[in-house]
Amino acid sequence: MGLKLAWIKLPTLRFRGKVMLGFTVVLVISTVSMGFAYLGFERVSTGVATYRNSVWEADLARNIDRELISYQMLARYYVVTGKEVDATATLAIETSLKDGITQSMKGTTNPARLEQVTRLGREFQIFNKIFADILKVKRESSLLVQNQLARGANMLRYKLDDLPSNANETELQVIQFGAKKVIEQFQAVTALANTFVVNSDQTVAASAMARLKFVENALQAISSSDEKILQGLKDATALLEDYRQALSKLVESSKSVDELVLEMN
Description:
This protein has helices spanning 2-81, 84-107, 111-162, 172-199, 202-220, 227-264. It is mainly α. The longest helix is centred in the N-terminal third of the chain and has 80 residues, at 2-81.
């Protein structure tokens, strides 16, 4: 009776062992499958991340290229207009472009794109230095026009207008006629100078500088024995020389800008 019971239990244990073994095998297979799936997912994730990073780097490079072209166009436009509002617009995109290049060089890992961004960065630095020099010269020229050229012209005209008021009756007509001639010659000079300020034409500048000699000759042609008139003529001559020097500086500054523009192009 005892042997019979033992024989009945043995097949039962064998069946349970088979079940446990099968379950274990399933677990192992599931674990291996999950491992392969995880590795595959990692590869896909890495591939997606690499692709996205590549797209980001390419977008940055294209944006830098576009902004550099816009920056160069705005800088050249400022050279033509000389307006401060155009300078401000150029400086704004300059700051944005500088930040973009720095960000791109830090974040780019692709060697070919990094070389492209580096090349754009060098191009920007060269152009940026030239534009900074042009901006400095043109701003100094603007101050020169306001503080010396325009003010000097007004002071000289006032001095010439005031000259006959100090003349006595015997010299009045001569002084009036002489002062009128000087004023006419000087008006021709200021008209040319104002045109040059607008268009920076060196031919116009040369004409203005040449006509200053006519103003000087007309001023020297006025003669008087009155001390007040003589002092007035002396003051007018000094003011004329100041005007000549201011115009000469402006002409030289314009030549400097022309040379820088050639480098820019």
